[in-house]
Amino acid sequence: xxxxxxxxxxxxxxxxxxxxxxxxxxxxxxxxxxxxxxxxxxxxxxxxxxxxxxxxxxxxxxxxxxxxxxxxxxxxxxxxxxxxxxxxxxxxxxxxxxxxxxxxxxxxxxxxxxxxxxxxxxxxxxxxxxxxxxxxxxxxxxxxxxxxxxxxxxxxxxxxxxxxxxxxxxxxxxxxxxxxxxxxxxxxxxxxxxxxxxxxxxxxxxxxxxxxxxxxxxxxxxxxxxxxxxxxxxxxxxxxxxxxxxxxxxxxxxxxxxxxxxxxxxxxxxxxxxxxxxxxxxxxxxxxxxxxxxxxxxxxxxxxxxxxxxxxxxxxxxxxxxxxxxxxxxxxxxxxxxxxxx
Length: 342
Known about the structure:
Elements: E1 6-9, E2 12-16, E3 27-30, H1 33-41, H2 48-63, H3 70-81, H4 89-104, H5 110-140, E4 148-151, H6 166-175, E5 181-185, H7 192-203, E6 207-211, H8 216-221, E7 227-230, E8 234-236, E9 241-244, H9 247-256, E10 261-264, E11 270-271, H10 288-291, E12 292-293, E13 296-297, E14 310-313, E15 320-323, E16 326-328, H11 332-341
Parallel strand pairs: 4-5, 4-7, 5-6, 7-10, 8-11, 10-15
Antiparallel strand pairs: 1-2, 2-3, 8-9, 9-14, 12-13, 15-16
Helix pairs in contact: 1-2, 2-3, 2-4, 2-5, 3-4, 4-5, 5-6
């Protein structure tokens, strides 16, 4: 059963503290834009679509008590939330959407505008649930019975409102009765695959095997993998895909071994203003994410660390992109434009 990653409950945001999984399923609450910012920055919540959902509520929390300078407070809130993390397009998409809705209703009173923005945040959440299920249905058509699938990082319910992008496709195929197996990369350095993806897949009763990241090419060489399915944090207009670090390596291996490489993401993840992946901002995170596992140092404490959170996979290595508008095929620049027009 899907698990609600983000909810609006008792006039505040309720979310799963993903740092504690799989050992503890614990919920926390955000009562302010500052707490939403902290939840995003410290990865209590992560996954591009989920960041879009919580960003909508973060905007409302930031202006909830605004009185005289509503639009100044709104702009201050959106700018502030935009500094939480730089790569996931959905975060900025949601902030822009909330600003646009407010401007479209600028003649309304501040109290009425607050209600409109809260309703819009709720609409973003509801839409995400519907979109993920649409993508699941489209993507499941690409999966055959007895397929063995490799996935990287976490693109499940925990990365969205409650269902998932890449894992949503796997869930849909499973619910259709297709017997499938999944290999989940552990996804260093924060281990989202080991901690989150394995946990979600096992909750659904899907045959799941965990591997370290450097085993994937070996499995492909032994013809153990039929498909690679991943999510995305931002997609450029030409189809270049930014996703969790290590995705590019998988795409190269899949291309070499002639394994289809599928990306699953809503249109809100596609940044049509960015022509190619070269312009996608890549977040660099705390060096201790690499130096430590579970809070324990595994390296010299002062060793230098390079820790980019994402890499960019060139469009030429991507087989298809699954969206809520259907399966996009090459050339991606054209199919993306057509998806936006329909």
